[in-house]
Amino acid sequence: MDAARIAFEEWGSGPPLILLHGLGDRRQSWSAVVPLLAEEYRVVCVDLPGFGRTPAPPEGDPYDILTMTDDVQAFCELHGLERPHLAGNSLGGSIALELGVRGRAGSVTVFSPAGFSGELARLGFRVLGSLADLATRIPLHVKERLASTAPARAIARTVLRGDPASPRAKSVRFSVRGLEKGAPFVRMLPSIAEYEFEQRPIDCPVTIAWGDRDRTLLPSSAEHAHRRVPNARMVSLLGSGHIPMADDPVSVAGHIRWTCRSAERRAGR
Question: How far is it, in rounded angstroms, from Cα 89 to Cα 27?
């Protein structure tokens, strides 16, 4: 797609740092982390293709993790962001790692990246893809009503937050607007289910962090990540779920900063 159509916001000044969100999310997922980093870095938050304010590729065009990686690479080239620091969550983490493989990153910090699940978890994503396809046939107002029920909200808090009982988790609910026929979320799910990160060299500092309460991409996936990215610094985020930027933004910012500084020390800055 045309990289000029990728929506983004930026704050601060210094070495560039790009933040990449997860599947079905948008750039605002990093809002609690940005102020903790913008004093040292030029922080750029993007809406990945199909999410937030960035349009998806037309129906029938390739649309998967590798094409999204191409799009983010083109975005960096368009805006003169040469080997920026990269941080990503889930889908965004996979894109950051793929850009690291291509030599396009100054450092890579990822949180629960896709591509390291065992076969059982991948089967679960295939089933989820089938359920999402079925959900496209249900009228939107019915889905909205179901998502607002107490049981559905409880499941959303359990799946998406490390501590479902925390005050910050009270407003969490599943978004059903992505469950329309041809919607980006539905189109991407099969790609996520089949994607597997293959071991290849990444010639920059890498941190892979996993929430110990991640119920979407299980913490056991970190074992596969450690084997396939052996130079990575592995971190367990105590008390965090699949979206640690919401559960513990201070720790998330700290790990990003640590990896960035490691790269800067290597470069002799």
Answer: 11
What's the maximum distance between 2 C-alpha atoms anywhere in the chain?
Answer: 58
Q: How far is CA 263 from CA 107, 123, 267, in A?
A: 6, 37, 6
Edge-to-edge strand ranges of the sheet holding 206-211: 8-11, 42-46, 16-20, 85-89, 107-111, 206-211, 233-237
The pLDDT of residue 143 is 65
CATH fold of the domain at 3-118+196-266: Rossmann fold (3.40.50)
pTM over 0.85: yes
Domain boundaries, the chain: 3-118+196-266
Model pLDDT, residue 246: 94
**CA 91, CA 89: separation in Å to the nearest integer?**
6
